[in-house]
């Protein structure tokens, strides 16, 4: 062991210097010795480099979000190690065995778990999963030993013996998990945990091996991987959702006032009803510069109770955010049960600004379409109301608004050099928008192209669309 | 109102550009209209600039930390606005009225609240506190109205009517709060909330006034304030805690082995006992470069359950941390009930490295002594076991260890140019260490100077000190 410990310590330091993001997951039968093993492991490592997450009992805010949320927000940044003592398999292990979720939901969870793991490894993370196995008899023996020691007797509860009696059911779920979630980039290592020393050696050897392999591949630095480019749908002519949009649509000020008031009253009531039902809402606003997103959001939220919604403005990521998967900050912003989050720009920036401006290389933004669909499927699975709006205006209208902003003293700050530069790239953005809508428009996460030349029309359009969607769930 | 809204919008933008950290607190009687008022306010502001925190019901992780924790970790960074719908007065309002805490504890809370607010404003934050007042009759009228509306009737519960009957008790607590927590830098604005329109105007006018004043003071940029320099104790000769330390102390390897094993066994048991009692532990490690902090921590934690402790290594703050009060990141790292956090370096870096290297201006690090005492008093109030260790070695021993590190291949990474540079500043650091110990050694947060020339001795010293302290609380 001492040799293995030194070797792992050296590799761990090299991994850190290389900016490697290392995710270690430990699952296993109760009393298999996860705690002891993890402790042994972290003592071979620099305490500056890792964090241990023990997520046996979830807190209320954690339970109120999609089932992968508590884990997604805790994935370590590049250059660090996250050690998960039990992880994102809860739904297909405990919850399944205890019949806390329907078969349909835990079956679906496999796809979501696999997608989650692939996203991590595509982004360059090294994911290593251990399952600590002991037999039923050995478990009984260990539980008795714990029970008989006065210092640990409190750890063995009646419920634990009940679990023990259901050992076979657990075993069946475990077998399925191992079969369905072993992917080349996220393999399981099953550790025979009857013998502590043996388990330790297997753990250290496995880690040393995967670290060595990865570090030799990357020759020191870890690149962001660009695999899994989704299939192009070939060269067929696509319909243009933007061209189909009738920009001449408008509204009389009087009718606007009436419908605005009605919808605002209604959305206030719906906010309360969905709050009580625990149904969350996520709204995504994207649109051309000067399309009127800000004013639109303001009308939407004017009557809402501020304790129940939050507007999340999305700008360039900060240094902490940059060290994570780009979806990380959006995971963090997801609403609690019954709450609403309004994204003023969103995860779609990757396939818009980052694509057009070249901030993300092509394989990365191409990969993002699928990542986004998968991300949104977590919201759908959690029964979140999810609506996406592209506020559309034409180029002439944009020019008119830019000029108007320049003329109005208290609006002048809104218009910058960058806006003029972006305007020059109208066609490139247009192409990106069309592809984005085509590839991420799904029944449970639909895109609405909002005719925006008339601000009044656009506001009512969004408000009434949101009201209708909330209505269905109230 | 429209004029006030535009004016506030303009000021808010200027404040953001100036990097102003704005903290708005709303307290008030139930049904006084905080929600409506806050919503009106945020609609005059750029959604990119603020966050609303509604902290009526605390989550379990929030309740398991010092009472100011949920608020301290949510204070906005510079350039942003935090709006608190109910805030850190919970203990002297609800908890006091409902007799959930002893008189002694809520009385002490006043000092802690005042210190907390002073720390924020010393750091450059602009803090504005509103209390929304309505009379008992008006409250009854509004509760009835809510109750009679089918959409809102669920909001009025039996408990609310009970609160209403205790209006006078609440009023008494409020009066005391207003009297005891109005400071020049953190004044209360009492808003007569019987009339919504009046309340709105008062709110907007007050905010416009304070923002104008602050922005004109700072002529655009907001400086970090350097007030409240604590009193020097004059020129008297201080005893030197470092000189008093007997560095010749050592331990035979055999005795070391025996005592190590005993303490490790004991600390493992104590960890479980304190976990069950919900008693948290915070350990601070500071010391000279190469004093052996890392190895010492490893021996301390070797036998612990990794699910119950966390080692927090403290390096230079990242960009997000820099935009907050320097204690913010330590607030965030405080342990939950029954957990242990080991700080490998800590908040003391401000009065050590930052002082000696000139990263913090003198008024700032001077102020830090008091800030640290106050911060640690939160831990004491929360009945956290808090111990602070300075691992002391002499200059010769440091030289020996530096040279040894250079000779040993797998330790060479530990020694850098910077270590040699720091070594040149030994005397300046020494002075800083002595002053730090003198000014922050308190009964509930004692400093232990650990004789560190013998690593074995130092490890046993720390372990046995920690065991003894935990023992008292087990």
Would you give an account of this structure?
- The structure is a homodimer of 474-residue chains.
- Chain A has 474 residues and is of the alpha/beta class.
- Chain A is built from 20 helices and ten strands.
- Chain A has a five-stranded parallel sheet, sandwiched between helices. A five-stranded parallel sheet of chain A has the order 7-8-6-9-10, with helices on both faces.
- Mean pLDDT of chain A is 92; it is low at 219-229.
- Chains A and B meet through helix 1, helix 2, strand 2, helix 11 and helix 12 of A and helix 1, helix 2, strand 2, helix 11 and helix 12 of B.
Write the layout of secondary structure elements.
Two copies of one chain form a homodimer.
Chain A: H1 2-17, E1 22-28, H2 34-42, E2 50-54, H3 60-63, H4 69-72, E3 81-85, H5 94-97, H6 103-122, E4 126-133, H7 136-148, H8 158-165, H9 167-180, E5 188-192, H10 196-217, H11 253-277, E6 281-287, H12 293-301, E7 309-313, H13 319-322, H14 328-332, E8 340-344, H15 353-356, H16 362-381, E9 385-392, H17 395-407, H18 417-424, H19 426-440, E10 447-451, H20 455-471
Parallel strand pairs in A: 1-3, 1-4, 2-3, 4-5, 6-8, 6-9, 7-8, 9-10
Question: Which short descriptors sum up this protein?
Answer:
474 residues, alpha/beta, 5-stranded parallel sheet, homodimer, elongated
């Amino acid at each position: 062991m001492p040799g293995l410990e030194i070797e792992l310590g050296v590799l761990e330091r090299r991994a850190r210097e290389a900016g490697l993001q290392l995710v270690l997951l430990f699952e296993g039968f109760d009393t298999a010795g996860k705690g002891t093993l993890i402790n042994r492991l972290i003592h071979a490592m620099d305490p500056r480099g890792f964090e241990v997450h023990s997520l046996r009992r979830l807190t209320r805010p954690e339970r109120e979000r999609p089932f992968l949320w508590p884990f997604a927000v805790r994935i370590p940044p590049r250059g660090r190690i996250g050690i998960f003592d039990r992880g994102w398999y809860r739904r297909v292990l405990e919850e399944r065995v205890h019949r806390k979720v329907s078969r349909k939901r835990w079956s679906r969870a496999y796809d979501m778990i696999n997608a989650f793991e692939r996203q991590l490894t595509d982004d360059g993370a090294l994911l290593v999963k251990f399952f600590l196995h002991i037999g039923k008899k050995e478990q009984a023996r260990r539980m008795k030993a714990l029970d008989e020691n006065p210092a640990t007797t409190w750890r063995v509860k009646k419920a634990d013996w009940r679990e023990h009696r259901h050992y076979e059911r657990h075993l069946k779920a475990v077998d399925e998990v191992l079969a369905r979630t072993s992917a080349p980039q996220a393999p399981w290592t099953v550790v025979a945990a009857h013998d502590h020393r043996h388990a330790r050696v297997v753990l250290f050897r496995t880690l040393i091996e995967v670290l060595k392999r990865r570090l030799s591949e990357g020759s020191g630095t870890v690149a962001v991987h660009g695999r899994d480019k989704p299939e192009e749908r070939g060269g067929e002519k696509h319909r243009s959702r933007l061209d189909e949009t009738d920009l001449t649509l408008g509204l009389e000020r009087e009718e606007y006032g009436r419908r605005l008031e009605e919808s605002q009253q209604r959305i206030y009531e719906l906010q309360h009803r969905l709050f009580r039902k625990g149904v969350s809402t996520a709204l995504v606003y994207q649109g051309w510069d000067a399309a009127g997103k800000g004013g639109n959001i303001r009308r939407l939220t004017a009557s809402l109770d501020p304790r129940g919604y939050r507007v999340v403005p999305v700008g360039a990521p900060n240094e902490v955010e940059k060290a994570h998967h780009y979806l990380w900050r959006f995971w963090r912003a997801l609403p609690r049960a019954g709450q609403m989050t309004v994204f003023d720009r969103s995860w779609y920036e990757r396939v818009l600004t980052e694509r057009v401006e070249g901030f993300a290389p092509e394989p990365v933004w191409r990969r993002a379409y699928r990542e986004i669909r998968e991300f949104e499927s977590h919201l759908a699975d959690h029964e979140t109301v999810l609506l996406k709006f592209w506020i559309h205006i034409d180029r002439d209208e944009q020019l008119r608004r830019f000029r108007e902003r320049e003329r109005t003293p208290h609006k002048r700050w809104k218009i910058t050099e960058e806006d003029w530069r972006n305007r020059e790239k109208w066609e490139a953005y247009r192409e990106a928008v069309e592809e984005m809508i085509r590839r991420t428009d799904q029944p449970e996460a639909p895109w609405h192209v909002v005719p925006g030349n008339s601000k009044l029309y656009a506001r009512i359009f969004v408000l009434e669309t949101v009201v209708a969607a909330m209505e269905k769930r109230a």
